[in-house]
Amino acid sequence: MMFNVREATFVGIDLAWRDGKKPSGIAVLRGDRQRAQLLDVTVLSFADVLTRVERHTVGTTVVAIDAPLIICNEFGQRPCETLISRKYGAQHAACHSSNLNLYPDAASVRLAGHLESLGFRHAPGLDHLEDGRAMLEVYPHPALLELFRLPYIIKYKKGNVRQRRLGQQELQRRLKKLSEFSPPLESTPKLSTHLGIETDLLGGVALKNNEDQLDAIVCAYIAYYYWFWGSANTLLFGDLESGYVVVPTLSDGAPGIVKLAPKAV
Residues 157-209: pLDDT tens digits? Predict the structure, then answer.
């Protein structure tokens, strides 16, 4: 695996954030301005997620987490969740509500605090991501809607077993296309193995684990995409005070694949 000196690490976490007791998916990419490759993808306990992040943290590391990192509101929805629901609700990508009444000790907020102790800062508050450690909250459903210009979400999370299997197959097919994006997630044997899992053979815990790992790969790619493009091709919902969600977007005129050079960050 050969990268230039500007390489960085990108971690995606599909966090079981409400109490931290269920397993979480985590994926790690290593890349530069040319491409990224999948290093690792697995399902771990909350404590082991922290250890894995520390293990892979280098000088430049971006962590994208599918979970609320900032919760300040006592009741109702965070403003960013309301904004996401307004924009993507008709495509079935509305947000659930996060608040202190429901989740007074969310594992996701604890994770953000732990990352801050390691020198990570929230990406929307940084001028650039060329160097240093950054984290951002993401939401795979609207990200996939934007990146692949889909009319509705890929339904791989809910429904009966057959529906979830078919949804995961569709997501696997879509993620293979990331090798054609800019920046590309290179099609390597490790990635091909994970995207080639026969979901028809999965059920129960195995099916849920595959879902979590696919979500983690999506999150890791969003981290890479944000590092590559900066704020040029992303939407920011909310703010650092009340909570936020970063959603990647394609450039105008790009029919599913971004071909433009990145802006300087």
Answer: 888 899 999 999 999 999 999 999 999 999 999 999 999 999 888 888 999 99
pLDDT digits (tens, 9 = 90+) for 34-50: 999 999 999 999 889 99
pTM of structure: 0.91
Full 3-state SS string of the chain: CCCCCCCEEEEEEECCCCCCCCCEEEEEEEECCCCEEEEEEEEECHHHHHHHHHHHCCCCEEEEECCCCCCCCCCCCCHHHHHHHHHHHHHCCCCCCCCCCCCCCCHHHHHHHHHHHCCCEEHHHCCCCCCCEEEEEECHHHHHHHHCCCCCCCCCCCCCHHHHHHHHHHHHHHHHHHHHCCCCECCCHHHHHHHCCCHHHCCHHHHHHHHHHHHHHHHHHHHHHHHHHCCCCEEEEEECCCEEEEEECCCCCCCCCCCCCCCCC
What are the residue ranges spanned by the domains of the chain? 8-248
